[in-house]
């Protein structure tokens, strides 16, 4: 799914991407076609946290968070109204825009990520 790769941004140890409802429709796909991509992003060298934000169906935005070794993504998911485990977590939003959720999620992850890096000494 080239659109996910085209949208992907890697900043330090953080990788994220997104798919809009229109991306799914234009490529004749459903949310089932994107489920494993967050794990692929997490497997990139030097990436600790991977985030995939998807909108499917229209107006429903889903966030998948994965971490590799030390960052607890469940803390971020809980702040955003979701849940999960230390290495795999997520949350969902209804009746909202993907760009709004993406900004909120990335800002929240960065706040927690940089704080935990300095606390644990894991600066990359």
Describe, in plain words, how this protein is organized in 3D.
The protein contains five helices and six strands. Helices cover 39% and strands 27% of the residues. The model has no long low-confidence stretch (mean pLDDT 91). By secondary structure, it is an alpha+beta fold.
What features would you highlight for this structure?
single chain; six-stranded mixed β-sheet
- The total count of helices amounts to 5
Summarize the biggest pleated sheet: 6 strands, mixed
Helix content: 25-40%
Strand content: 25-35%
Ends apart, CA distance between termini: 29 Å
Radius of gyration: 14 Å
| Overall pLDDT metric | 91
How would you spell out the order of helices and strands?
Answer: HEEHHEEHEEH
Sum up the overall morphology in one term.
globular
Q: Point out poorly predicted stretches.
A: none
> What topology, given as strand order, has the largest sheet?
1-2-3-4-6-5
In total, how many beta strands? 6
Structural class: alpha+beta
Short summary of the structure?
With 124 residues, the chain is an alpha+beta fold. The protein contains 5 helices and 6 strands. It has a 6-stranded mixed beta sheet with strand order 1-2-3-4-6-5.
Q: What topology does this entry show?
A:
Blueprint: H1 2-7, E1 9-11, E2 14-19, H2 21-26, H3 37-42, E3 49-55, E4 60-67, H4 73-79, E5 83-84, E6 88-94, H5 98-120
Parallel strand pairs: 2-3
Antiparallel strand pairs: 1-2, 3-4, 4-6, 5-6
Helix pairs in contact: 4-5
